[in-house]
Design a protein that fits this description.
The chain is of the alpha/beta class. The protein folds into two domains: 168 residues, P-loop containing nucleotide triphosphate hydrolases (Rossmann fold); 257 residues, no CATH class. The chain is 46% helix and 13% strand. The protein contains 16 helices and eleven strands. The strands form three sheets. The protein has a six-stranded mixed beta sheet with strand order 2-3-1-4-5-6, sandwiched between helices. The protein has a three-stranded antiparallel beta sheet with strand order 7-11-10, with helices on one face. A two-stranded antiparallel sheet has the order 8-9. Magnesium ion binds next to helix 1. Guanosine-5'-triphosphate binds next to helix 1.
Length: 478
């Protein structure tokens, strides 16, 4: 009876969180989810496709309309071997039962059942009716306790009522489930029907392989970002006549600095889009005042992420301070007779991170022109901050449940600064790993090939691995 590809119909009351469960399990954040009951009006199949192959299917349903009537019919026909099939056959032509026959059709065809209940609410008579009628279908079935308001008062009651009628009862929060929790839920499907064991096993293997591939892709995106950001330069040729006066020079410096900073922001922005797509997120927002929402080059971000001052000093010595081939900003100012830090005259951002200039300015004099070049980034703190932030972003992409979609307006997700400071990824690395990264950053800045690239990839992959086994940024109350 069991279908070749495991197929599960998600049942439950309106608003129990059925669509949220499907969205999270299939990583589909485009499924309609709403606080109003009755959002899903017809059953739809959502397959999980990996490498072009469907490995499991979930059917999102609107839930029962006449559970009492169906149960009554089931009870009077209990002798029949397949109640779901018999019910559908008997009521196919009856418009009064159009909804219920449509709902039971996939079950009649052999789909298993996942009942989603809101475990934070008291059990009502209607729940008992549904539980009993699903038991009578005799299909493989699992119940999910989706604890919507995180009230534990009724959980034991639910466990007791459900365990009598379902092969497996599990707690699963569609809004906060991480990758590991999803895999655990899928594994439990094996126990609801032995015949599914090989397929579910295969589905889990395919998931694991796919996840590994995405993690590798994320590591590549992150390495590319570091390489691009640390070799980034902006040049502008300006007629000498425009730089005779200090105001003219300041204007050029301001413009080129803005372009440089915007370029760095854009590189991060593009890498974030890639990370989002590796982990299949389309609907996305971050709270503007969170570490991910703030400006990359802001002092808040630089303080919350990256290495500590002490760690930076240690890796600085080991990696050899950036060579002084280009003029420092301050020196550049002097050479132009201004003595001012770049940007100061424009009243804008100074291009400083952690008390040090972000990059150096080089001015080449050619006949009738000056070529202003800023970059690459010489600030030792910046690459670690950038790495930590893209890691944090990856954590959000890996662990953010698709069923949660964008954060709710009234409860925006928070990423507390204190937590991040304690959980900073790079500051938790070993001194050896930090030195390896610092050396790699220095060679990229100098446009040198580095034999440390593979070692860095391993470090990055290691952090991602840790993130994917953690709950970082998956919880609303983080
Ligand atoms: N806090 C929280 N809210 C949840 C969770 N799961 C679902 N919700 C919310 O509950 C509401 C209903 O979720 P849906 O997934 O649309 O529920 P449904 O059972 O598909 O609803 P219908 O299609 O209307 O029957 C939405 O506002 C969800 O955001 C959860 O795990 N935690
Ligand atoms: Mg729905």
């Amino acid at each position: 009876m069991a279908a070749k590809i495991p197929r599960l119909a998600i049942m439950g009351h309106p608003n129990a969180g059925k669509s949220s469960v499907v969205a999270t399990l299939t990583e589909n954040d485009c499924i309609a989810i709403d606080k109003r009951a009755g959002t899903t009006t017809r059953s739809d199949v959502y397959p999980v496709v990996i490498d072009g192959r469907t490995i499991i299917e979930f059917i999102d349903t609107p839930g029962f309309q006449n559970p009492n009537a169906i149960l009554e019919w089931f009870q009077t026909h209990e002798g029949k071997s397949d109640l779901a099939r018999s019910f559908v056959n008997a009521h196919k032509a009856d418009p009064l039962y159009a909804h219920d026959t449509a709902l039971l059709e996939p079950v009649a065809e052999g789909a298993g059942i996942i009942l989603v209940v809101d475990g934070s609410k008291r059990i009502k008579e209607k729940d008992r009716v549904e539980i009993e009628l699903l038991r009578l279908t005799a299909r493989p079935r699992m119940a999910i306790l989706n604890n919507l308001t995180r009230q534990n008062r009724y959980m034991t009651q639910w466990q007791n009522a459900l365990s009598k009628a379902f092969n497996s009862v599990r707690e699963f929060n569609a809004h906060r489930a991480t990758y590991s929790e999803r895999i655990r839920l899928l594994s439990a499907l094996k126990s609801i029907d032995q015949r599914w064991e090989p397929q579910v096993e295969e589905a889990i293997d395919a998931f694991a392989c796919d996840w590994q591939r995405r993690t590798d892709q994320a590591a590549t995106t992150i390495l590319d970002l570091l390489r691009d950001a640390l070799s980034y330069k902006v040049s502008r040729s300006v007629k000498s006549s425009k730089t005779i006066f200090q105001s003219g020079r300041d204007k050029v410096k301001g413009e080129i600095m803005d372009a440089f900073e915007d370029g760095l922001r854009q590189l991060e922005f593009d890498a974030q889009a890639e990370i989002r797509s590796h982990f299949r997120h389309n609907v996305w927002n971050v709270a503007p005042d969170s570490i991910l929402g703030r400006d990359l080059l802001s002092e808040d971000v630089s303080q919350a992420l990256g290495l500590s001052r002490r760690q930076l000093a240690m890796v600085g010595v080991a990696a050899g301070a950036a060579s002084g081939v280009t003029l420092d900003l301050a020196t550049a100012g002097h050479s132009l007779g201004t003595g001012a830090l770049l940007g100061a005259a424009t009243g804008g951002f100074l291009g400083v991170m952690g008390g040090k200039a972000l990059a150096k300015l080089n001015i080449e004099r050619a006949p009738n022109t000056h070529v202003f070049t800023i970059g690459p980034v010489s600030n030792p703190r910046f690459p670690f901050v950038l790495l930590d932030r893209i890691m944090l972003y990856s954590a959000r992409a890996m662990n953010w449940a698709h069923g949660r979609q964008a954060a709710e307006e009234d409860a925006p997700e928070r990423v507390p600064d204190k937590d991040i400071a304690r959980k900073g990824f790079t500051e938790e690395l070993t001194p050896q790993q930090q030195r390896t990264l610092a050396k790699f950053f220095n060679s990229v800045r100098r446009s040198k090939e580095s034999d440390l690239e593979e070692a860095c990839r391993t470090i990055i992959a290691g952090i991602l691995q840790g993130v994917s086994l953690s709950e970082i940024d998956s919880r609303g109350d983080l």
